[in-house]
């Protein structure tokens, strides 16, 4: 229950940030977008249709037809994201009004950063922002010969052509800048949360050290016999992989049990095998 509350808190926070970004920067500055948001912005530009309501109307059939592919939990949370962010977007003018930034480039950069943060929070909570990714998965499920990446590319091209015709080519250019910044922001957050470190601990009091690592870090270890080259004393060589955000706990464990242990820590780029990434969860 505690994890579920935390997850929905992250979902709501991400939805609020997403709605605020669209309201405060994207719409006033005339910045386009891909996916469902791009379609909604185009319809708003042509007919004055509410962006949030249009987003809901487009996403509802996608969620209905894609329910089996997405699964119950993921669908419910994604629907929740779409409804909360869309309703907030259409009603934010009731709470405050902000002047449009004159610098569209600055707006597109801010949009990218904030959308990246919002999407990361929602993904951590095992949700999504909906959109045409679902339709691509539906088509791919029916026609296996069509690659998912190709379908997503085709959808993006179609939407960007629509946005370019309706809102002008510059809107697409700024949208591409926003998309690039959003991707880099998400990568930075992912790297900050999920980057891993391989650690070697050479110590004498290995049993207590291993028990504390298993209990407090919930990580497995590999233990080898070692001999000190200078002292010729018997030692244990403990190898483990942890995430960057667990380093302080590991330092505390070593400092409490055997401060004179020899410890080395280095980055890990790729892990293959039985390693659970807990940094991108709320557990």
UniProtKB/TrEMBL annotation:
It is a multi-pass membrane protein. The keyword Secreted does not apply. Its main location: membrane. The chain crosses the membrane at residues 7-27, 47-67, 105-125, 157-181. Gene3D superfamilies: 3.30.70.120. Residues 219-273 form the DUF2179 domain. Keywords: Cell membrane, Membrane, Transmembrane, Transmembrane helix. It is found in: Cell membrane. Pfam families: DUF2179, YitT_membrane. It comes from the Bacteria. This is YitT family protein. It comes from Clostridium tanneri.
